[in-house]
């Protein structure tokens, strides 16, 4: 039987002293209240009300059972409230610091349509997995090699100085023998300070004869952008990021490098829900594409 429903009807009728008023308090038809009380009496093996009177008079057994029934109803109500809060508890997720406010807002909006309520924690790539491990967040968008990524974003270089059409070859940034030309630098932001991006660029730097300081990891995206805005330097970034920063973007001639992203979560079900329900919304927030599709 429905023990909670029966107790709710019993408590309402017992407190109102009437099946009619009790049913109204419980928000159910009188016939339903009568059936539920009868089922509860059958379940407990004793009558709860003396039906010889026009009023709903509690029997001695009914008076003894009423406090327990009240406790059960209160616990059931508390459980329903807890379930509501748990269902709508924000899922805290660590995201790249490159995500824009607009991109995250659009992701949050789409997530709400799937009854997922997100709370964002921007963090560099090296910290995001650690935040999941320590349970400071429930999930994280992690940086992975593009071949292993659910989302990918091709990287190139961007700047404010005029650029010729076509890819930029890093070899063209070498300083001549005279050394009179300014040494143009290539700045990596913290999001790309990961082996599958950084190490490949450093190998190309060395193979084409650039100076070590010409490929540098900046302390922050803001610092890297400031360097580029004030010089002919270049920023390693995605096309979407270059557009946001008002820079001209070109691919790199010597190699193809990409950011790759996946989801890591404390509970595997959270990662699956994000991948399945928000795959394209996450891609937009990252300025990336679902793996195997053309990046934006």
Automatic annotation (TrEMBL):
Q: Which SUPFAM superfamilies does the UniProt entry name for this protein?
A: Winged helix' DNA-binding domain (SSF46785)
Query: Which PROSITE patterns does the record match to this protein?
Result: HTH_LYSR
Q: Which InterPro entries match?
A: LysR_HTH_N (IPR000847), WH-like_DNA-bd_sf (IPR036388), WH_DNA-bd_sf (IPR036390)
Q: Which molecular-function annotation in GO is an example for this chain?
A: DNA-binding transcription factor activity
**Residue limits of the HTH lysR-type domain?**
1-59
Pfam families under this entry?
HTH_1 (PF00126)
Q: Which keywords are on file for this protein?
A: DNA-binding, Transcription, Transcription regulation
For this chain, the family text in UniProt reads: Belongs to the LysR transcriptional regulatory family.
What's the protein called, per UniProt? LysR family transcriptional regulator
Organism annotation: Actinopolyspora erythraea
């Amino acid at each position: 039987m429905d023990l909670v429903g029966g107790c709710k009807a019993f408590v309402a009728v017992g407190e109102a002293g009437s099946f009619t008023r009790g049913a109204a308090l419980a928000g159910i038809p009188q016939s339903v209240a009568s059936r539920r009380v009868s089922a509860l009496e059958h379940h407990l093996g004793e009558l709860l009300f003396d039906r010889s009177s026009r009023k709903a008079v509690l029997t001695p057994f009914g008076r003894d059972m009423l406090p327990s029934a009240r406790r059960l109803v209160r616990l059931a109500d508390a459980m329903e409230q807890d379930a509501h809060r748990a269902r709508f508890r924000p899922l805290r997720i660590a995201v790249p610091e490159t995500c824009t406010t607009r991109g995250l807002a659009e992701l949050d909006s789409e997530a709400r349509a799937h009854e997922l309520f997100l709370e964002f924690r921007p963090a560099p790539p090296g910290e995001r997995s650690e935040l999941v491990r320590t349970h400071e967040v429930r999930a994280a968008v992690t940086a992975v090699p593009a071949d292993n990524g659910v989302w990918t974003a091709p990287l190139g270089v961007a700047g404010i100085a005029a650029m010729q059409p076509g890819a930029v070859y890093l070899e063209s940034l070498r300083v001549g023998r005279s050394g009179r030309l300014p040494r143009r630098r290539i700045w990596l932001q913290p999001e790309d300070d990961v082996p599958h991006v950084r190490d490949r660029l450093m190998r190309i730097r060395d193979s084409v004869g650039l100076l070590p300081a010409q490929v540098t990891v900046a302390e922050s995206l803001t610092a890297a952008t400031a360097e580029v805005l004030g010089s002919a330097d270049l920023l390693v970034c995605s096309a979407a990021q270059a557009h946001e920063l008002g820079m001209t973007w070109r691919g790199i001639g010597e190699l193809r490098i990409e950011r790759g992203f996946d989801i890591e979560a404390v509970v595997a079900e959270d990662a699956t829900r994000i991948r399945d329900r928000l795959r394209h919304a996450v891609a937009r927030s990252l300025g990336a594409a679902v793996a195997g599709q053309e990046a934006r």
